[in-house]
Design goal:
The structure is a homodimer. Chain A is of the alpha/beta class. Chain A folds into 4 domains: 296 residues, Succinyl-CoA synthetase domains (Rossmann fold), CATH 3.40.50.261; 160 residues, Succinyl-CoA synthetase domains (Rossmann fold); 176 residues, ATP-grasp fold, B domain (D-amino Acid Aminotransferase, Chain A, domain 1, 2-Layer Sandwich), CATH 3.30.470; 78 residues, Dna Ligase, domain 1 (2-Layer Sandwich). In chain A, the strands form 6 sheets. A 7-stranded mixed beta sheet of chain A has the order 9-8-11-10-12-13-14, with helices on both faces. In chain A, strand 6, helix 4 and strand 7 form a beta-alpha-beta unit. The radius of gyration of chain A is 32 Å and the shape is flat. At the A-B interface, helix 5, helix 8, helix 11 and helix 21 of A face helix 5, helix 8, helix 11 and helix 21 of B.
């Protein structure tokens, strides 16, 4: 984990750029950087480096980096794989501050490449020269006139608007493709980072840089992610948090959603990518928008680019056709937008202007009458736009020479004077070539125009949902507690001692050879208690007499269990006896268990026998923690039984959890209805569950040697009656226990 | 229900066409039909009709239909709504055989319009002149050179291929849009039917006509559906069945998937559209492909248009970029394609030609090396194409002047000589204008080219799945049994008598005022038994002595229930007593029930007391029947408890069910894993369930007065041990009981 943030200025504001392996052919990959630096007017010094040439494009060409007379901030490296290391070492010796390496043939190319890349990583660490790549397309920074990239020059065109959108990509191809597709829609990324194999700097470094950037330089950050490296997990988390706090939208495409995709991604980047569902939960948690693909990302960027953000989900559809109205109504509901009723006044006004056979509810169907009265379109829009029930307008109309004059100018004025987001699904009402200029005219005044009616509605719906969540719940700045902030009371080692229990390290010999330790139900529940998590009342006893006394205290219906951290599944070895009543039955049970365990072929070490109250039936929840290599502790929960086992109905959040996170993770469950009182049950005590999730999150962060925790079942009673952990199990990392 | 199929020849092969309300302005809606008939060279007689003109475009123009000298096969009606009826009546008097009515302002326009449309419907019924519309865009039949439509002339262009694809649309707008979008991709529909409000002829009539058409005239039928009218349900069902038997693919867009969409659709067509999930089940059952929207339909048509159908799901991805490979791998798995391993020989050959840092597994990543060696693309494709493990190839590459010469010609030869479906996700590798001709060249030799990588993979995956299912299971020609085919044994009335039970009609006074009858558990289960459906062993008794005898016969653990068709929820009135053991307890229970029921404020009529065996616990299934207004009896099943109640995990099929249908409806359940033996249970007796589903399907068809049936629970035991209905409930239509 790197705690010192790297200085990215050599990449963003270099005073001088050297191009190693520069080509005389300015259209070739190694020629493009020089060509584009000249084209866009980079104001700093440029040094082409190539022993074959004396000059390129009027610039003196140097045989090697050492021969350059002045200082070099940024080196662009396009030499072959076998020369790369030597060239980078020379750069480091020269005192170059940053290097962008295009070259392929490293970690993506098998073992030898992995070694070479590791050497490059060490070089960066030791020399302080930071490296982007290898195997990347490089960096483009339009505002600062930097083109340290072999991305095709065609990407450099005029933008329709001047929002500051940036793009960071773990795939060069995908980066260029996105750039290109966005450009086709008149959208241009100001900064573009292709990070390649991330030998040194990775996507999180640039994400962090942009997230903490001034607002006037960064509005939106788009990312293409194959997987975040373990070492960069913390930085990625904090960057996402920073962006949220500063209200910058991060839009993400994350591949590796399926097993096939994950396999392909890890062969591409040679990195383990972590569980996709953890990423997915984290994106939701930090209000990042995950687009399923480029087809959805572009519409999202277009809508955001218009600069009007949805104030809510209440949406009107106005269409010049019944079929369009129906399809858009379907898509709106599918993607979470509400087709609310208009105010009466709106409908009255629509009725006044539209033919009797038009539909004046929501969706509005103008009918083919607009073919003869094109002004009906604009008139209807201006009526609906004023309706206070409506947050967003989805317009659907054909455009061509026949109606454009009657529509465009008035629509422009209306649009520019309205705060409400609008999108137009627009079809050519003529030969495409004849309609195109009108569509471009509409686009030019800022109204996002689409030629499909699926992805654009996805984008509007997803954005509206995200904005609503952000408005509803502005997160406070949170800190994960550092070691020094921990309450001594919760210090594991001290606590163990106070319990008089053996340290897990002492139990090491008998635990799994894996180097991990389990903890017994009893010990685990003691720790849960410290965090205020309610557990069953229970006593660990060591004799029949103690068992009998426990029975008297605990009451009627009791469970008697063998306690040993060597046993994960107590029932399987006959270590659990249920429904024992009174002193005598519990004494008998004690004796029976001791005998059963003793008679096993390899009897485990018994820490004692647990006498435990048995609880009345309730909704059974499973709550757990798993440590993710990228995101750290992840809290999960789901309804017990078939919901988890058959339907895998589990929701996740990365610790630390906010109260809102805990609420949302419950709401996300398919089985949420069960909690709300479906099946003639009383509504469950969600408050109690939320408190427990928050406590588990705290425990998972503070106990940083905890690898896995399982509260199963957590019995949840009706509202106001609480929730209680009946059984618990944990797995701990051994080395960290040693440290404490 | 219409049993006589209408004669559609006046619409498809008219010898003469009259255009009522013809306009001199050939670019206006009422001018377009004449313009296009001339343009495409319609060989029959053309009669413009409009009192304002003497001639149009050199044709004599008639003041009214009566003045036309010869016979008229088809009238195209574009007069205003208030003149339409008079004009149609005149047409009918003249003996016109078919009319296409463009005019709006009928059922979609409220009450008055509904009445007017009903009058038109009656006119068609009485005169025998068949009508398409009103409120439609009309008919285009390219092969027969008919253009009875005001669809814009721009739709008429040259096709890239000559497959016979047709399109039937319940929305004019959507029809034109689809036509236009398909045309942009070089795909042209040969026949196009916009059916509008379906006052007389509807989508099912033309679907049936195309489904039973010769193979050389119809390859694929695309439909846009808002809802099938009740009266056309049977025809729609049989048309779908015919198409399946003749191996013609039907591709459907069905809107009204959501509540908002359904509301909008029914306001658009003024028809109740039936439950979307029944449509959805029926589409699957008949191997129709449902596209979520036009964005998915067009890629599907493009892939089908290439004429190579997937032999399986095993798919190779070959990409010139890692990012593209990963995204496509994700999408392939997401949409059900298998990214299988290549044969060893394939991988060996790929390794031989590709650079060491390329990925030679599936997906293949050619890397940026193709920028310098463009022939790598074709070479890799030709290696993978030969792999017998591979059914389909997904290619992903940039194209432009730099690589086109090295790629296109050899790719063309390979493609034309291969049976394997291929699709190309193709990006311009240059300014778009420079790359466009190359992309067109690829498209021109038949390889479907896409510029997105989501919908095209959906289309390939969905098609592969459909073809696999069709191949695996070729349905036999099936007949729903007619009245005469019914076995007398199952005749309800006779059966009732044999049971000595009162006829439901006698119970009418005491049953719901709704005009429907319930049937008691006992009677319902007797009927189930007739269909070979196992039910609990039970006796209906009328005295304590009979109860005691029943107890002796049935054994140990018994349920005792009050039987009355007036009571839907027995437990709620205390009408069920469980776990009674032996003569005495059952006698007591009898007395208790009689007393409890008698003491109710409004005691229902008791048919008797049911003594019933109680079964050991098992997997509980719910099986039912609901009568859909469009599709008739629909069989449903789902796992009892939360699966049905919370998750609505129910699957449906329209009766009659085939064995394959029954299997698939079980496999479709999210809870299918439970049957297969999840949660440490034994696998359930699926064979028994399938038999029961088939019997229920037969019952539902034969008992055509059954409105609703509920077998709940059906206890399913481990494999080989059968399944038994524990409780059953039915609702019957009163009038039909009268008839029998």
């Amino acid at each position: 984990m790197e705690h010192q943030k790297p200085d990215l200025r050599p990449f963003i504001q270099p005073q001088s750029i050297a191009i190693l392996g520069a080509s005389k052919h300015l259209g070739k990959p190694n020629g493009i950087p020089l060509f584009m630096l000249l084209e866009i007017g980079y104001p700093g010094k440029i040094y082409p480096v190539n022993p074959s040439y004396q000059e390129i494009a009027g610039y003196p060409c140097y045989p090697d980096i050492e021969s350059i007379p002045g200082e070099v901030d940024l080196a662009v490296v396009g030499v072959s794989a076998d020369q790369t290391l030597a060239v980078l070492e020379a750069c480091a010796r020269k005192g170059v501050k940053g290097a962008v390496v295009f070259t392929s043939g490293f970690a993506e190319a098998g073992e030898q490449g992995i070694d070479l890349q590791e050497t490059i990583h060490r070089l960066a660490q030791e020399s302080g020269m930071r490296i982007v790549g290898p195997n990347c397309v490089g960096i483009v920074h339009r505002q600062n006139k930097i083109w340290a990239s072999f991305a095709p020059p065609l990407l450099y065109r005029k933008a329709y608007f001047n929002k500051n959108f940036h793009f960071i990509s773990q795939s060069g191809f995908f980066g260029i493709l996105t750039y290109q597709m966005a450009a086709r829609e008149g959208l241009f990324f100001d900064q573009f980072y292709s990070v390649g194999n991330e030998a040194d700097l990775g996507l999180p470094h640039f994400l962090d840089c942009l997230a903490t950037d001034n607002h006037d330089r960064t509005d939106l950050i788009a990312c293409y992610i194959e997987g975040i490296k373990d070492k960069d997990g913390e930085l990625f988390k904090s960057a996402a948090e920073e962006a949220l706090l500063r209200d910058k939208l991060i839009a993400v495409i994350k591949v590796g959603q399926t097993a096939a995709g994950t396999r392909a991604a890890s062969s591409h980047t040679a990195a383990l990518t972590g569980a996709d569902r953890v990423y997915d939960a984290f994106f939701r948690q930090k209000r990042m928008i995950r687009a399923p693909g480029i087809e959805q990302l572009i519409p999202l960027l277009k809508i955001c680019g218009a600069g009007k953000y949805p104030a809510g989900k209440r949406t009107a559809v106005i269409s010049d056709s019944g079929g369009g109205a129906v399809m858009l109504a379907d898509k709106c509901q599918l993607y979470g937008l509400d087709l609310v009723r208009f105010q009466e006044e709106t409908e009255r006004q629509l009725k006044e202007i539209l033919p009797f056979f038009a539909a004046t509810g929501n969706p509005v169907d103008l009918t083919a009458q607009v073919m003869t009265e094109p002004e009906l379109l604009f008139k209807s829009i201006s009526i609906v736009e004023k309706d206070p029930n409506i947050d967003n307008l989805v317009l659907n109309f054909g455009i061509g020479p026949a109606n454009a004059p009657a529509v465009i100018q008035s629509l422009k004025e209306l649009y520019l004077n309205s705060d409400k987001p609008m999108i137009a699904v627009c079809w050519p009402w003529a030969e495409e070539e004849a309609a195109r200029p009108y569509i471009d005219e509409i686009r030019a005044f800022g109204l996002p125009v689409f030629h499909e009616l699926d992805d654009c509605i996805w984008a509007l719906g997803t954005l509206a949902d995200r904005m609503e969540k952000v408005r509803k719940y502005k997160p406070p700045r949170r800190f994960a507690p550092g070691k020094e902030q921990r309450n001594a009371q919760f210090h594991l080692e001290a606590y163990w001692r106070s319990l008089g229990l053996p340290r897990p390290s002492e139990a090491r010999e008998v635990s799994a050879q894996s180097g991990y330790n389990n903890m017994s139900e009893y010990a685990m529940k003691q720790i849960l208690s410290c965090y205020g998590i309610p557990v069953t009342r229970e006593f660990l006893v060591h004799s029949e007499a103690e068992a009998a006394r426990a029975a008297e205290t605990l009451g009627e219906n009791l469970a008697v269990k063998a306690v040993s951290r060597e046993v994960a599944h107590k029932t399987e070895i006959g270590g659990v006896l249920l429904h024992r009543k009174g002193r005598e039955e519990v004494k008998q049970a004690y004796a029976e268990l001791v005998k059963t365990i003793g008679a096993l072929e390899h009897p485990p070490h018994l820490e004692g026998i647990l006498v435990q109250e048995m609880l009345p039936p309730a909704t059974e929840l499973i709550v757990g923690v798993k440590r993710d290599p990228v995101f750290g502790p992840v809290v999960l929960c789901g309804l017990g039984g078939i919901f988890v086992e058959i339907l895998e109905d589990i929701s996740l959040r990365v610790a630390p959890l906010s109260r809102q996170d805990a609420e949302e993770m419950l709401q996300e469950l398919k089985s949420y209805k069960v909690f709300q009182g479906a099946r003639r049950q009383e509504p469950a005590d969600l408050e109690a569950v939320i408190e427990i999730l928050l406590s588990v999150s705290r425990l998972a962060l503070e106990m940083d040697n905890l690898l896995e925790l399982d509260l199963n079942p957590l019995m949840v009673y009706p509202r106001g009656q609480g929730a209680v952990v009946v059984d618990a199990w944990g797995r701990w990392q051994e080395d960290k226990n040693e440290e404490t």
